[in-house]
């Protein structure tokens, strides 16, 4: 049990690195045609960019099924749990708190949240594939604190 929790939490941390890498080198690279929709005004509720979430969910489901069905691959199940937790954290932070796709009242003085929110606003100042910064989501370096 403890091993499972450790693997899930470790995966959660690694996922921020995976998300950062994907965002910086893939979404702002070869997959800009999808991510573009998230950096520019568009019609309707959904964005082509949402397909990335669908893709990540598919990966998590695949890992869950393999981890639960194949005894020797048991560790894939807690990895899938970590990926899913990250996905939830990402969605709540990125889509609800920053981009307000679901209308809720939310005000925070939490320094950690303010820092990652600020970092993501900085990321969105650039509407092109190149030249953006702050590719992380749930972690941002200290320089994004309000001065
Ligand atoms: Zn971006
Ligand atoms: Zn965004």
From TrEMBL:
This is Sterol desaturase family protein. The keyword Iron-sulfur does not apply. PANTHER family: BETA-CAROTENE 3-HYDROXYLASE 1, CHLOROPLASTIC. It comes from Fibrella rubiginis. Keywords: Carotenoid biosynthesis, Membrane, Oxidoreductase, Transmembrane, Transmembrane helix. The keyword Membrane applies. The lineage of its organism: Bacteria, Pseudomonadati, Bacteroidota, Cytophagia, Cytophagales. GO terms for molecular function: beta-carotene 3-hydroxylase activity. InterPro entries: BETA-OHASE-like. One of its GO terms (biological process) is carotene metabolic process. The chain crosses the membrane at residues 6-27, 48-67, 73-93. Belongs to the sterol desaturase family. It comes from the Bacteria.
């Amino acid at each position: 049990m403890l091993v499972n929790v450790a693997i899930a939490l470790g995966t959660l941390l690694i996922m921020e690195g995976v998300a950062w890498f994907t965002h910086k080198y893939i979404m702002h690279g070869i997959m800009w045609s999808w991510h573009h929709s998230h950096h520019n005004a568009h019609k309707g509720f959904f964005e082509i960019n949402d397909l990335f979430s669908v893709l990540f969910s598919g990966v998590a489901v695949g890992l869950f099924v393999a981890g639960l069905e194949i005894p020797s691959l048991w560790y894939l199940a807690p990895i899938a749990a970590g990926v899913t937790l990250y996905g939830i954290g990402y969605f709540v932070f990125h889509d609800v708190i920053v981009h307000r796709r679901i209308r809720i009242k939310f005000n925070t003085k939490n320094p950690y949240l303010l820092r990652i929110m600020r970092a993501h606003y900085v990321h969105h100042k650039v509407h092109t594939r190149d030249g953006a910064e702050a590719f992380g989501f749930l972690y941002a370096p200290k320089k994004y604190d309000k001065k």
